[in-house]
């Protein structure tokens, strides 16, 4: 038996820990806490950035949607526009062949109203003045000349005691002379006279003046 084995002194340091265990448990606790804090901080920053990006995309989408809605409403408004009132053409007055070979045209309604044979009806003109059309005096239109006939002169009375197309100044003059506001013109071609009167009808310029001085009562009615 070997009795020379040296015994370790009582004040020798303790052997190192086994299994890689730390000698200071408090340090491990601090490290774990620091790691957890860093992880939570990174997670919080990521969530804030994600929320900010989501809000920005939402605002952009909302603005784009609003602009798209405005564009759709604008297109709908343009589609619903109607141009019927701006490009409305009134129908031409009806004309029929009279028994005497002439044309019977209705009196324009826009300026002085229409009057039928045997009676009169007062109506308002473009202004505030009321115009009383004379008795038995609808617009008279002389018949066109026979085919092949040359020469002649036609007088168009647009505003007067009686309106229409007449074949001489002797017929048209009494309806315009000494009448305030009377309008008449003369043509060497029947078709031109007819076109002028039709244009005046469509434009509402034909107007029958009131017979203040009783001129028509002393005249023989001419035409229908």
TrEMBL record:
Listed Polar residues bias regions: 94-109
Keyword Membrane among UniProt keywords: yes
Keywords, sorted A to Z: Membrane, Transmembrane, Transmembrane helix
Transmembrane segments: 33-50
Renumbered residue ranges of the record's region Disordered: 1-25, 89-146
Statement: the UniProt record of this protein carries the keyword Transmembrane helix: yes
Residue ranges constituting the Ribonuclease H1 N-terminal domain according to the UniProt record: 154-194
Compositional bias ranges of the Low complexity kind: 110-126
InterPro entries on file: Ribosomal_bL9/RNase_H1_N, RNase_H1_N, RNase_H1_N_sf
Name of this chain's protein: Ribonuclease H1 N-terminal domain-containing protein
